[in-house]
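Components:
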Amino acid sequence: MCAKGWRSYEFAAHPDRLKKPLIREGDGFREASWDEALDRVAGRLLEIKGKFGPEAIQVLGSAKCPNEDNYVLQRWARACLRTDNVDHCARLCHASTVAGLARAFGSGAMTQSISEIEGSDLIVLTGSNTAEQHPVIASHMLRAINRGAKLLVIDPRKTPMARIADVHLSPRPGTDIAWINAFINVLVNENLHDRRFIEEHTEGFSEMWEKVRQCTPEAAERITGIPAGELAEAARLYARSRNPMIFYAMGITQHVTGTQNVMALANLVMVAGKIGRPSTGLCPLRGQNNVQGACDVGVLPGMLPGYRSNSDERILGQFEALWGVRPPSWKGIPSTQAPDAILAGKVRALYSMGENIFSSHPDMHHVEEALRRTDFLVVQDLFLTETARFAHVVLPATAWPEKEGTFTGTDRTVQRVRKAVEPPGEAWDDWRIIGEVSRRMGYPMEFRSPETIFSEMAKAIPLYAGMSYERLEQGGVQWPCPSPDHPGTPYLHRDGVFARPGGRGRFHPVEHVEPPERPDAEYPFCLSTGRVGFHWHTRSMTSRIGLLEREYPAAFVDVNPEDGRRLGLRSGDRVRVTSRRGSLECAARLTDEVPPGLLFATFHYSEASANALTLNALDPIAQIPELKVSAVRLEKVP
Amino acid sequence: MSGAKRLSWGDLTRVLRALEKEGYEVLSPQKNRWGDWFPEPGLPAGWPGDFQNYAYPFLKEAVFPLEEPLFSSGGTGFVFHAAEDRRLAFFGARPCDAEALAYTDLFFTGRFFADSRYRARRRNLFVIAAACRAPCPKSFCVAAQAGPWARKGFDIQVYPAGGDWLAEAATLQGRRLLSAYPDVRREDLLRVRRELEGLFPAPGPLPRHTVRDAARTGWLGARCFRCGACIWLCPTCTCYDQCRFGKDGVKREQDPCLFEGYHRLAGGASLRPTQPHRMDFRYECKFGVGACVGCGRCSVGCVGYAAMEAYLERPGSRAT
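Structure:
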């Protein structure tokens, strides 16, 4: 376990836990009974739905909650509220993976198992601070390295894994397509590609090659800043490895070109034929404990449970038979566009289960304005989060040690979680809260337990069809698991048979696109954002764990020592970071983790969140925001 | 005579029942459905042949919990939380944990300092160690002279001997409980010990980490993810911090020396600003003053590859 895991029991028993429903009264809240709070929620939502239509209600699920809670939430949204405006924080981390890999491979998930890492002979890490954000997976990587595997890190930052890497390449932020295309260029020009795999298992190679032909290592050097010779050597290392595994995270996905970045990586593994075998593939490292599961159960606009499109009449009919109501066939608003929709008057009510969009979403001041203008905001959470402070009704929910259910890990393993302790005060399970609201709105779902919810999920999601609580008692099962006698699927696209119609992988021609904002004379630094290993997401839980909070008690910005010297800064000096959207003040930390010209700040300190600086430019396909490249100015605070 | 006794399983059960009559809650090793061993209340039906060690140092937890409230400030003044008054008889303690207990006793019940909470719990603890028949994963207890049998830290220690058990007592209370059973010759006890030692790999000496070893701790420091597992799993780590608890209380909790905050001064400067510095501090404690009992838990729980196993495998180590 990581430090967060060791101490995770602590927040659940924290005195700040919400113990009773709260209803807004003036500038504050008063405690209320469940009956009063639920009646208020159901009544106001019915009123808004009646007056403005179901499109005026936005629902947010949570990748921290079990599958069962999220399944019930999206069913309530689609069958009771009749809205497809249902989304969750995958929009901020791997929406581009879901979109990109689904287009390329037919399945938007990690192709391999975590346990296969130790069989790899080359680990390629890009856009992932694995040691801090996925330490258990990094542990498997270290074991592979101890057995002789090479480590290639491609990341602007000198992360802990980069420090022990055999090769570390540091591209300029926002130039991933250029180095990936240069890899492909080297492979094809030096005949290191897998012709047979391309011919037998893929389509669209020629169109892709037309774009990539021009992207020589020398051309890529001009874009990325990585010397051409080093790029070519790294490409050869990848091509000549027998079982390379590529891992990536938000450094790849949180860009306006996030989906294209993912498709470029998919191009690379298909050109090399490095997929469809054990310990050989492409592995997105999902951001939260159940972000894979929340996607699987359909907390995504336009996607019904099991990644089935709501534009397909046959699929809609199946869900109508299951739910008694035909789900909406229009595509809902992603969470990153919800603030705009609220400010435009299209969305009037926001129901948030375990999300803290005030802190997590880009351009914080814009989000704050939207939350203030929401006609009716309901927050269902453990603590009075920054978002909950704007709510009209706050409902106390249970934390993971108090829950029964299932989580789906980053490698598609569905696992049971069991209740260990009683919740504090009058906190309720999320599925029970949603069920009660739904019943009061005239759509009773009649789930008696998480197990009964999972039974329905197994009917609704073909990938889960062979699973049951009884089976999961014996251990986790990896989807796809289409029948009770199916063993589960440790790795996808076996023998090059992809999940797309026709079974072929699809190349996509992608080329480098400049980020919407680059440093200039006024804002000369590039800002990248993320989190630290001791805090999780918006810090609503980890700030209440003493030892974790002590490690990183306040916001900071990482500055390269060369830049620090130029600006007369020392570690610990107060600095002001300013972008076109806002500014924040925090301590500077001089470190060679960032190259000259790059700053790194975190988003989980609400008093100095990097999201006060980020811009809400979105990937046109996945609607994921550009959180890794913003132009900023850095000044010492006198 | 050796002072040791020969007991059948029935005799051993009678000793445990006698402890129960004296007000002790007897804890015995029990395996849960996922294969993890926990000390659970009650007497075992028989000695579990596959029991190696608890994944967590429960003996340390019994005297020095991971965290405990010290006091709260209510409306009328301070309320001090006393250590619970609970008599525990820990049956099946492993020799490494018993040795670790003897080590922590030195500090917390010493001549110059006595921790009242630790001492209160320690007085209420009766330890029945069971010598080991197989090395645990990643352990090196023989090299640390903390296995396969304990030299100290127990009231009674039992050794498997054919179908019976040899038992030796290290305290007056232990001797009293064993007084009714037949004596065993010293040669027989030594022979059983030698047989057990033969089941373990021959040990080499542990390194003496008394000066900074930059190459080794630099390598390890780069691999340490600061998960804290090695500290929380270590039976001799007892550094603690005092911090806020609830709305108005103060608690103490074990504090990992591999965390940066442990070494931070009030003004914000750090005594040991890098992970290699902190690694040096830890290994000097473990090998410089002999605080490692070789249980191997830190290496099992380490998320990186930076615990004792890695330390001993790095060039410069003399241990095997």
